[in-house]
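Entry 0007
Protein: Protein GrpE
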Amino acid sequence: MSEEEKDELSRTREGEAVGDVSDSDLRAQLEEAQREATQFHALMQRVQADFVNYRRRMEEERTALQERANESLVLRLLPVLDDYERALQYVPDVEEFRPWTAGVELVYRNFRGILESFGVTQIQALGMSFDPMEHESVSYQLSDDHEDGMVMSVVREGYKLYGRVLRPAQVTVSRRNNKAGESPNT
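Output (structure tokens):
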């Protein structure tokens, strides 16, 4: 073999060795790049999920804040509604007041309609079993005709807002007459 052929062979072997090392280095770099890409992709997905959760929480907090603000306003308006109801209970039955009475009833219905559009509902109490979560007992009435704990009358209407009790209904609750010799506290 000539000197030129030996140099050629040696350069080819060095090139193959360099090429082998280069291929393995390139493969290692490619695998590392793929691992990093996978990690960045997973990180991006977590960040996106966190952002979606953040937006949902902010929307829930905004809704809760709005509901609390509505609750405060409605609580201040309920005494006005009570006054309308009391006024309508004592309307004189005189012909000359009928147009005025009709106007007051119209304002009352509109007022109730507005409250209902905000999610205010009246608590049903009369004839129901006493529920301490919705009713507030202000007195009791002895009765043989009703079971213990039945609501006999409503002193002040109660209301819910968004399904939560805003103001409990004040009620009179039935109590069975005691037999002779029994203590009223039993």
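Curator remark: Helices lie at 3-89, 98-117. DSSP finds two helices and six strands in the chain.
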